[in-house]
C-alpha cells in the first residue's frame, strides 16, 4: 500500500525538516530516518528566541522543544547534529557530510532526500560589518550570545524594523536597554501599508525608543563604548551593540551546486508536493519558492507555519505518492506584537498590489474588538483589498490592541475559500459581549466595500486627498478635542438643518471620529444632491 | 435609480428592526420611516442585559445605545415607543396600532412594512408560574426588575442552562448570590455536544453553583422566603427568586393573523431577501425562519448577528430591488462565557447531525491557544464534524479558557466558504508566539480528520467505547497523577522496546494526555501489525 523508502535523509532539523521527519515516521516504522543539522540543536522554537532575551520566556528549556535524545525516543530518528551537508551526489543518491567539530568527511546514501536548510540573516558587505558587536538572531546559540552581550551594554541599535527587529526592540526595552531602530523604509514593517503601522510607530516612540525611519547604514566603526554606525543621512549612532535584522537569504547553495532548479530570487523551485526537479529530492521551508494562491504567482514566505506544513506535505508524498494532499501555497499571513499593539497582514498589501499592477479596491474601517458596551473593548483598524472584477478578497491588514490576530485569521480563511466582500458582510461570527460584535469589524469592512461598489460610499483614503470643503460631523466636544485641520464642524444631528452652510458647487469631504458617522453624513448629503465623500478611518486613523 | 417608498413602517425597534430602519435611511433621505415599539426603549444592547445585573457593565446608559431622540437626530426616524401593532390590514396597506399607555387605537399606512417583533421568553403553563417572583429577561425593564429583586434575596434558581441562563448564573454568583441552575437535559448548553461542555459544568460546580441536570420543573409554590420549586425527580428547591430562561417563542401572532405564511415551528417564512409571501411585507430577526446554508434545510436562529444583517437585507431589497445582496442563511455560530471558560459552536453539533440522519465523521483534538512555550497558553478542545463524501466541514465546537472565539470564527468562515478538512489542515493563520501556533489546533483538527480518511488514525471517541486492552503512553509521572482506569502504562519512548507486553490478538486502545502522543503510539503499533486505536482528546478530555 504505502511506499517505504529504506533511508530518508533530511538536511536541516528545525521547522520544515523536523516536521518532514516526524510525519515520515507516522507513515513508516521501518524506514531509517536520518536528520542532519549543522548546529547543536534541533526542533527548537525559533519564533520564541526574542522572548527569552527579553525574559518573557524565562526558561531556556521551553525553547529547546526537542533534543536528539527525545526525538530518538519518540520517533526513532537518527539525529546528527554538528553535521554539515556539503554536497549532494544525485547520480549516486548520496550526500557528502562534514563534522563541524572534527572536519571529518563522510557520505550518507539516501532513497529520498528532503532539503530544509532554511534561510540565513542577511549581512551586507558594509565597512566594519565583521565586528563581533554586530549580531544576528537565528538559533539558540545566537540567542545565548545576544543575551550575554546585552548584559554589559546600555544601548542597542536594531537595524531593520521587520517582525524580528520589532520583537527584539520590544524585548530589549523591557529589560531596560536604550533601543534605537533603524529602518531604510520610511515606515516600520514594510510588509504592511504605512498608515496601518503608525499606531505601532507611535507606541515605540512613546516608550522612548529611538525610531529612525527612511535611513540606512553606510558602515560601522568600533569605538570604546561599542560601535558607531554611520547613517546614509550623515548622522551617526553610537551604541553598545548592533542587531542586524534586515531580512534573510535562502540557503540554496547546496541545491544550486547539485543542479537543482533555482528561482529568480535564489529559492529552490518545487512542485505542489515540494518536489524539486529531481523526483527523489524534496525541498521545504524558507529555502524554497511556493505558489501564491491569490494571484497564481510564485512567492517565498520565510515563516514557521508554511515550513511545518510543507515538511508534512513532502513526507506525505514520499509515502503516499500522488494521492498525497498538495501544498496549497502561501498567502503570507503574519502578525507582530509591539508592546500593547499588534499589527499584521493576510494576503496582499495595497503597496504590493500597486507594484504588481493588479486592479484592486480598498477600504479602511474601525470597529471595537468586542461589544463596545462591554468593558475592555479596543479599537481595531481593518484595511481590506479586493478585486473590482468579482469582489474577491485579495488581502487585509489589521492593527490595534486586541483581537487583531482573530480578524487576520478570519481573513486568511476567507482568502483560502476565495470569499468575496459580500461573503465578509455576512460572515456569522461568534458573538457574546465579551467576545465579539453583532456586526463585527470584518462584517463592517464587507458592508463598506459593498457600499463602494453600489455607489453608496464614495470614499477618500486620507485627509491629504480630500478637497477644501471638509465637514467634521462629530459632536463639538470631540471635534475640539482632536481637531481636523481645515474642517468646519457641523454635528451629524444638525446636518439636515444646516445644509445651507455647505456649498453645493463643490465636493464635500465628511470626517468623523471612526469613519462611520462620516458615512452617515455623506449619505445625507448625497441624498440631498451633493457630491459627498467619506474620509476613511476617521480622525482615529487620520489625525 | 433607487426605489423610495413614501412610508416605511417598521414594527419592533431593537436589533433587526433598528437595523432595517437605519439602513433604509442610508438609501433614502426623503422616505418617512416610522418605527413602532411596544416597550419604552429602542435599539438597546439586549445581549448585554445579564452583565448589568452582575455589574460587569456598571453603567445602565451603556446598554441604552440609542433613544428615540438620538435616532431622530441621527437618522430622522419617527420612533413611537409604547405603541403596539395589533393588526395588519394588508389589503389597505395599513397597521392598526394601540397606545400602551392610553389604549387609544389608530391606523398607520405604509408602502413597505418590516416586521421585527422578536421572540418572547417561554413561560410554560405550570402550577404557580404566574408568581411575580418568577422572572424572565428580555428587555431593559425586565433587567431593572431583576436587578431590583435580587437585591433582597440570597438565592436564585435559574431554569434553563442555555446561553442566557449561564450568563445569568455567572453574573448572579459574582454578586454573591447562591445560585442553582436547573436544566431538563443531562447537560448544560444543549446546543453543544455533552462532552464539550463538561469543563464548564465543572467550573460552575467549582464556584459552588448548584447544578441540577436532567431534571425539570413540575411547579412552583410561594413560600415565606420566596418560592419552592418542585422538580420532576421529587426534590424541591427553595429559593428567593426564579429566573426562567428555557427558550423563546417567535412572536408571529400578528403575521399569522394577517395571513402571512408561517413555518412548522411558528416562524414567519421569508425568502432570501427577507420578504414574506406579501411582497410589501418583510420580516427579520428572531421571529422568522431562514435557510441553513450547510444542508439547505430551514432553520431559525434567535441571535443578534443574524437579526441585524437580516434587517439590512430587507432595507436593501426595499430600495434596490432584486439587485440587493441576498441573506445567505444562518449557521448558528454562538459562544458563551462561564467564568474563566468559554464554549461555543458553529454549524452542526454531532447530536443534530444524528437527529437529522446526516452522514458525518467527527474528531476531537486539543491544542494550545498560542505557542505552548509562551506564557499564558491555555488548552482549547476542538471537535470537528465533516461530510465523509467530500470532506466538507459541517460544524465544530470549541471550549477552553482562551481563544475559543477565534477558532469558532475561523470555522464559521470556513463553513461559509464550504471548505474541507484538507483546507483546514492548510489554513495559514497568524502566528507569533503571543497569538497563535505554527500548527494551530484548527490545522491539527484538519490533519487528524485527513488521517482518519487516509486510514492513519483509527479513533475511538471516548474511553467508554474502548476495549479492554488500553495502553497509556504518557510518562509515568503524568499517568500516576491522573490515572486512566484499566490502562497499562507504557511510555511512548519505551513502546518500541516493549511490544511483547501487548497482546497482538486483541485491538489496542492508546491514550495519552492530549490525544497527540496516543496517535504517535497507535502509529507505531499499526506499523508493527497491531489493530491500534487512539482515544480522542486524551485524559484531558476523557478522565
Structural commentary:
The structure is a homodimer of 543-residue chains. In chain A, the strands form 8 sheets. A 5-stranded parallel beta sheet of chain A has the order 3-2-1-7-18. A 5-stranded parallel beta sheet of chain A has the order 9-16-10-11-12, with helices on one face. A 5-stranded antiparallel beta sheet of chain A has the order 21-22-25-24-23, sandwiched between helices. The first copy, chain A, contains 16 helices and 30 strands. In chain A, α1 packs parallel to α8 (304-320). Helices cover 26% and strands 25% of the residues of chain A. Chain A is an alpha/beta fold and 543 residues long. The first copy, chain A, folds into 4 domains: 7-119 and 249-323, FAD/NAD(P)-binding domain; 134-246, FAD/NAD(P)-binding domain (3-Layer(bba) Sandwich); 340-453, FAD/NAD(P)-binding domain; 459-542, Rhodanese-like domain (Oxidized Rhodanese, domain 1, 3-Layer(aba) Sandwich), CATH 3.40.250. The longest helix of chain A has 17 residues, at 304-320. The mean pLDDT of chain A is 96. At the A-B interface, α1, α3, α8, β21 and β22 of A face α1, α3, α8, β21 and β22 of B.
